[in-house]
Fold:
Amino acid sequence: MDRLSTEPRRCGIEQLADMLEETGWFESDLQAAFGELVGEGRAANIDDEKKRRRKKYIHFDANHNQGERLTKLTS
Structure:
């Protein structure tokens, strides 16, 4: 949640590498954690137009490795 903002920000390969280094997690762990945040209504992937992703919530290599736009939702 610390890396998310209420303004959409791109999360690509470079950001993935930074998060993996900071947390010691695998990409699948980050995907699962983001999926939980989406399920709780605390975060969203702006570029996931169909909202049907079940495992890979973020495509870090999309948009020429610039990633997809993620945002923190406020309640």
Observations:
- The two ends are 14 Å apart (CA to CA).
